[in-house]
Amino acid sequence: MSGINLTPFGHAHAPAEPNAYALDAFGRAEIKLNALRARATHEQPVGNLGAMAMGPSAALFFLSWPFIIFTLVSFSAKSGGVGAGLIFLLIVLAMNGLAVWLFINARANTPKKALKYFLKCVASGKGTKAASLVVSNDLDDFPRYPPITPGFGQAGVRPFFTAQYLEGYWNELVRYHSAPYCYVSMHRVNEQQIAPDLVLVDCEVRFMMNTQLWLFLFIVIGIFAIIVDAATRKTVKMPVRKLLYKVGEEWKVFNGELQGPEELDLRWLQNA
Fold it and tell me: Among 29, 40, 110, 183, which is most exposed with the fewest C-beta within 10 angstroms?
């Protein structure tokens, strides 16, 4: 499934005059950017995001165990096992070294990584951590109109007063199943430098959503549950444009919505 209705964002309770809403969004975006550049918002550092890299790191760690066994067996062999043991040892060290590197290097130090970790946070229901990846003056009383897109849940109109409001917005979109899971990935990523502190990231984002009940039932009914999960999950693919703002050595999402008006039409930047 793909496509997104932006009038604005296809919401049933959208303003009667979408252009007026967009103009308000553009004026707000200019004020936000000027405040950020004047350092009037006191942005807090995001820090290490190792928890979001735990999956790949843990997978590499557990996959290395067979090679640990092969290493021990090879070294204990009476003859000819030292060479093989050294090879298996190098593989073990490389896999575990990569796992540690992924954990340590999980930082929002590039626009692409910042957006990736933001999407992973909202997909996994980690609203507080997701909000830390958004510029702080985006959390205000401006109304957000979520998209009506096949495969997404129906979210209500809301401001982003706090991290909990941002989390609720995304949960209603991508975590609306019982015991939900959502896997998100970015494809065809293109970065455009707008200013030294501002980058536009164009990409295709894929959301794969379903209930974890099928995964739990795998223990009981085996591979059939995995097949049913694959057959019933919803996959939404859509083009997304996101602005990323540089704060110190880190990057943050400029608008915590799926897609903001000021990210589709950049003419407001002429006055910023």
Answer: 40
